[in-house]
Amino acid sequence: MANKLPSIALISFLLLASSISLAQTKQKSDNRFFELEFTGGMNGCLLDYCKDSTPDLGGDITLTQTINKYYGWALSFHYGSLKLEEVDSTSYYSVNINGRLIYPLGPIRLFSALGFGYQTLFIEGNTNEDHPWMDLRATGPKFDLALGIKVNIFKNFNLGLLVRMTVPIWSEACYRNDNERICTEPQDKIIDLSLMPWFAGAILSYSFN
Questions:
Q1: pLDDT in tens, 131-141
Q2: CA–CA distance from 156 to each of 66, 70, 163, 207 (Å)?
Q3: Measured between alpha carbons, how far is 90 from 135 in angstroms, rounded to an integer?
């Protein structure tokens, strides 16, 4: 019996080590997962170009990956419209990638995100005599700052809220003037695109874990 004690101790140690390893692997897999988000809400904008604007509809489709309990990243597509005075319609879309800081509180996850992407703005019509252009399309990179909260409501389904502010850096603007198509930098006196879009909406997401 005494000769068997070392073998029993070794087997017990291996079983314990295996149990700890499996538990750690399961914890890592639980903390690392993909999530698909659908967000719908309202768009608006700030600064001079938006002083007579009213919010309008917009939405996101976002794929996120939680790397661990506190960090993640996301790839998103956004489309929104804006109601501005002196133009017929205004809309924009953007593609964005961002890093997320996650603050888990049981079934609740708070998060903040800093993102970088590319944005395209469409403005149709113009009744401002000081800006003699029509049908403008502006493009350029942009930076985002977002805050959000998600709550697990049933198994892999989550509900939440999102607020995001965007800082665009317009690199080119093309417009029609007397049936001529002109492309220029949007910082000149003819085209003053001093606007910062914002978005606030409700999130419905599904976690693949």
A1: 666 688 899 99
A2: 14, 18, 23, 5
A3: 10
In the block, residue with structure tokens 């493009």: 139
pLDDT tens readout for residues 36-90: 999 999 999 988 778 778 899 999 999 999 998 899 999 999 999 988 877 788 8
For 106, left (φ over 0), alpha (ψ -120 to 50), or beta?
A: left
Roughly how many angstroms between the first and final C-alpha of the chain, as a whole number? Answer: 47
DSSP code per residue over the chain: -GGGHHHHHHHHHHHHHHHHHHHHHHHHHHH-EEEEEEEEEEEEEESGGGTT-B-EEEEEEEEEEE-SSSEEEEEEEEEEEEB-TTSSEEEEEEEEEEEEEEEEETTEEEEEEEEEEEEEEEEE----TTS--EEEEEEEEEEEEEEEEEEEEETTEEEEEEEEEEEE---EEEEEETTEEEEE-TTSSS-----EEEEEEEEEEEEE-
Mean pLDDT value of segment 120-141 = 78
CB 97 within 8 A of CB 62: no
Q: What angle do CA 147, 153, 155 make, to 5 degrees?
A: 115
Q: How far, in Å, CA of 14 to CA of 2, rounded?
A: 19
Give the residue carrying structure tokens 């399309």.
137
**What tokens does 158 get?**
């989550």
pLDDT value of position 131: 61
